[in-house]
Design goal:
By secondary structure, the chain is an all-beta fold. It has two domains: about 90 residues, Immunoglobulin-like, CATH 2.60.40.3080; about 325 residues, YVTN repeat-like/Quinoprotein amine dehydrogenase (Methylamine Dehydrogenase, Chain H). About 0% of the residues lie in helices and about 50% in strands. It has one helix and 37 strands. The strands form nine sheets. A five-stranded antiparallel sheet has the order 1-37-36-33-34. It has a five-stranded antiparallel sheet with strand order 2-27-26-25-24.
Length: about 450
């Protein structure tokens, strides 16, 4: 029967729930079961992604050291492995950050050290250029304020936090030692540091000089647990943090006034009373959260009532322990790629259509109305000389078609199954110039 294509200018998507995933596609999965196993058969810990010479790379921690990958053709290619100063089944946590062409690595167990690796020989390998316990042995987390060339080392030797000047990237110099509270993790931008201080809550300081200044404090709030980690939106208007405590929800704060910072909304999964959130990264208005035992969760935080727009469950083992499974998350925004590290199951590479979901609810896009003609052509009269990118997604968020063209139209492939689809048109600079919905029927 002849196909009939109807344009429907409704800018929302009807989602079909699935047990393992929702709007997220698995692209690749890597693991190595030969590595030393700790309690609960845990091997892996945190993950960090970075770009070098226009290619995307990954650092993953394990009980034994640092694994380096390249993402190529949406696949994970392991390039190198560097052993940690302390390599043992007792290792539960390694953390990584990058600055210029260097990777910084720490471990939170044993006779460890700060390690620095030179990335300039990628994609062949990386080279260790610094390995010292001069300032500390163990460290829980790192954060680098790239604007000010400062490295924040949290929970050093189970004490507060140490701040280093890394203007010379391979010769860290101690700048300040913070001893007011134990700092579990932090987020820092332009000397403003959001410190996650466990049961002492959230502390906000300015570290421009060694005469540090407190900017804000949130040490008592509803649903309080162990203040674990957080992330700031790019416009600095919202701050999202995790309480690493069973039954505690994710907190979203209005951060425009640091002095009066408070929790403005909360989010929890359907199983939040029996689950624990762990780490978070914010891209646009989406919070990407690694939930122990429940995989990665994507939360739209644009509105006062956060809503879940995607998830992928990495952990299917049966366990009573609530701190297994998904540990870390990292997002490559431009490529719409998500990295998730799972303590038992390794590294997952996924796709989520960030651009599509970012623009579904907006009413500010102005353009000539696209339409589909009798020849199944999607038309957009741009008048531009630069190429356009046409994307088509099914209603589960799967990317089913992609074409870059200098034409103002594409022919919708007749291989698409009957059903409803969403189109997204981007200009040469990646801006969304139009989007909509159409239906293919028999």
């Amino acid at each position: 029967m002849k196909q009939i294509i109807t344009v429907i200018l409704l800018l929302f998507i009807t989602i079909c729930n699935a047990q393992q995933s929702y709007n997220i596609d698995l692209l690749d999965h890597w693991t190595d079961t030969t590595r030393l196993k700790g309690a609960e058969n845990a091997i892996f810990s945190d993950v960090w992604g970075f770009e070098y010479h226009s290619d995307n790379y990954v650092a993953l921690g394990s009980t034994e050291g640092t694994h380096i990958f390249k993402i190529e053709n949406k696949k994970l290619i392991e390039l190198d492995f560097k052993k940690g100063k302390f390599s043992s089944s007792q290792v539960q946590h390694r953390d990584f950050k990058t600055y210029k062409n260097y990777l910084y690595a720490v471990c939170d167990e044993g006779a460890s050290s700060l390690q620095i690796f030179d990335l300039s020989t990628l994609p062949d390998s990386i080279h260790k250029v610094y390995d010292s316990n001069q300032y500390f042995q163990i460290c829980h987390n790192l954060f680098i304020d790239t604007l000010k060339a400062k490295l924040y080392a949290c929970g050093t030797d189970n004490q507060g936090m140490k701040v280093f000047d890394i203007q010379n990237p391979i010769q860290p110099q101690l700048f300040y030692e913070y001893t007011q509270n134990y700092v579990h993790d932090c987020y820092v931008t332009n000397d403003t540091a959001f410190l996650n201080c466990g049961f002492d809550g959230l502390q906000i300081y300015n570290f421009e000089s060694t005469s540090i200044q407190q900017l804000g404090l949130l040490d008592f709030y509803a649903g309080q647990g162990y203040n674990h980690s957080g992330w700031l939106t790019k416009d600095k208007n919202k701050y999202v943090f995790i309480d690493e405590t069973k039954g505690k929800k994710v907190k979203i704060c209005n951060s425009e006034s640091l002095i009066d910072i408070e929790v403005s909304s909360i989010y929890g999964t359907k199983n939040y009373e029996n689950s624990v959130a762990h780490n978070v990264q914010i891209v646009n208005d989406f919070a990407f959260i690694s939930y122990y035992n429940e995989g990665v969760r994507i939360i739209d935080i644009k509105t006062d009532k956060p809503k879940e727009v995607g998830f992928y469950d990495t952990f299917h083992q049966s366990t009573a322990y609530k701190l297994n499974g998904a540990w870390g998350v990292f997002v490559f925004e431009k490529e719409e790629l998500i990295l998730v590290s799972d303590r038992q199951n390794g590294l997952f590479l996924c796709h989520f259509p960030i651009q599509l979901y970012r623009n579904l609810d907006t009413t500010t896009i102005t353009s000539n109305t696209p339409f589909i003609d009798e020849n199944s052509k999607l038309i957009y009269e741009s008048g531009e000389t630069n190429p356009l990118t046409f994307s088509i997604y099914d209603l589960a968020g799967h990317h089913v078609y992609l074409k870059e063209t200098l034409n103002d139209w594409i022919t919708i492939p007749l291989t698409l199954s009957s059903g409803a689809y969403v189109y997204l048109i981007q200009n040469y600079f990646g801006d969304v110039v139009s989007h909509g919905k159409f239906v293919i029927g028999n």
